[in-house]
Design brief:
Order of helices and strands: EEHEHEHHEEEHEEHEHHHEEEHEEH
CATH class of the largest domain: Alpha Beta
Distance between the termini: 36 Å
Structural class: alpha+beta
Helix content: 25-40%
CATH topology of the largest domain: L-amino peptidase D-ALA esterase/amidase
Largest sheet: 8 strands, mixed
Number of helices: 11
CATH architecture of the largest domain: 4-Layer Sandwich
Length: 394
């Protein structure tokens, strides 16, 4: 992947245990325009608090990220560790401390092993010339079963550029701002205000439209850096064609990463698209969609391949969306399970059960009230999910 002006490195620091790379750097050769969205959880990890303050400048040049330890609920000592990590990286690269964004993922409530971090940082810096974005994607994995990456190519007035992204996440996925960890880089020259606006829109259509288990992490971060080294004319709201292309590419990258996270949901065997139409507003449609997607009863029915459509109507009913049960209709893929609030019959149930045996399917609910729509993505809830999270700290 030829994305200009970015270097990557990942090393083993044995933060949680030895045997894998768990400390990584993304370095832009020049200061980049940057923006980020963070967890809305009131309990925020030290690196989130530090990065939230620094991103206000609208620029960044380095991201340092680790797995194995969230550095959350670690008090003042955790903030000291985050600042020291940032300072050591900044000094090693010869950049301003404020140009460093820091992110962590892993176990909550455990102090960061700073002796191992200090020892590993020089190797991470020295390895920047030989690393790849794939190395970063693998280093940030925790319970993920595969690294999550996506890239797209575009042009602005004949000049080519790339948008690439990585993500990690399989559990604690229910976004209210960002979700999990995701880092997006582009060598496109993009006007800062437009970058912020397009990034926010892309996150809302992707990471804010997925849920695995209804939990919002203490560490959720989604960050983008645009360093402009492709040399294209600056993309802003006045360059309409270039704007459309950039926004489309950015949305495709984020949506692909978001879908990969759901497909890798802890213990998941199903990938389910929940579509709500006919709501009184898009916001109401989102409420209904998230209620269905987060319902443990619905998700266990998906796992059991049980066409229990009543659980879905129940979730829509308690979602807070405006509902008239006499207007509700429900489909599993193209199989009508209920119309005008009434069960479509045993034949429909048999065909609906066949749909639920697939690894991927769509659940569509029409509220029959207005024009509001929403699509969210979810997974089933399995025995394996319980096993993974029962043993997570061991």
């Amino acid at each position: 992947m030829d994305i200009k002006g970015f270097q990557f490195s990942a090393v083993e620091a044995a933060i949680k245990k030895p045997g894998r790379k768990d400390l990584a750097l993304i370095f832009s050769e020049v200061p980049a325009h940057a923006c980020a969205l963070f967890t809305t959880n009131a309990v925020k990890a030290a690196p989130v608090l530090l990065s939230m303050d620094r991103i206000k400048s609208g620029t960044a040049q380095v991201l340092v990220v680790n797995s194995g330890n969230a550095n959350a609920c670690t008090g003042e000592q955790g903030m000291v560790a985050a600042r020291e990590t940032s300072r050591l990286v900044a000094e090693g690269l010869g950049v301003s401390d404020d140009a460093v964004q820091i992110s962590s993922t892993g176990v909550i409530g455990v102090q960061m092993p700073m002796d191992r971090i200090r020892a590993a940082i020089p190797a991470a810096i020295n390895g920047l010339s030989s690393g790849t974005l794939d190395d970063i994607a693998q280093a940030i994995m925790t319970t993920d079963t595969f690294p999550k990456m996506e890239t797209r190519c575009g042009q602005a007035e004949g000049v080519s550029y790339r948008v690439a992204g990585i993500a990690k996440g399989a559990g604690m996925i229910m976004p209210n701002m960002a979700t999990m960890l995701s880092f997006i880089i582009t060598d496109a020259a993009v006007e800062p205000d437009f970058l912020q606006q397009s990034f926010s829109r892309a996150v809302n259509r992707s990471f804010n439209a997925i849920t695995v288990d209804g939990d919002t992490s203490t560490n959720d971060t989604c960050l983008i850096m645009a360093n402009g080294m492709a040399g294209n004319p600056v993309i802003n709201t006045e360059s309409s064609e270039a704007v459309t292309v950039f926004e489309q590419l950015l949305s495709e990258v984020l949506l692909s990463l978001a879908r990969q996270i759901v497909k890798d949901g802890e213990g998941a065997t199903k990938f389910v698209e929940i579509r709500i139409t006919g709501a009184s507003s898009d916001a109401d449609a989102k409420r209904a969609a998230m209620a269905v997607a987060n319902s443990s009863l619905v998700k266990t029915a998906f796992f059991g391949q049980d066409a229990n459509w009543g659980r879905i109507f129940a979730a829509v009913g308690y979602s807070g969306a405006e509902v008239d049960q006499s207007r509700l209709s429900l489909y599993f893929d193209t199989v009508c399970m209920a119309q005008n609030g009434i069960f479509a019959g045993n034949d429909a149930e048999a065909r609906g059960t066949e749909v639920l045996k697939q690894k991927e399917f769509t659940v569509s609910v029409d509220l029959g009230i207005g024009n509001g729509t929403s699509t969210v993505y979810t997974s089933d809830l399995t025995h394996e999910y319980v096993s993974i999270n029962a043993d997570y700290r061991s």
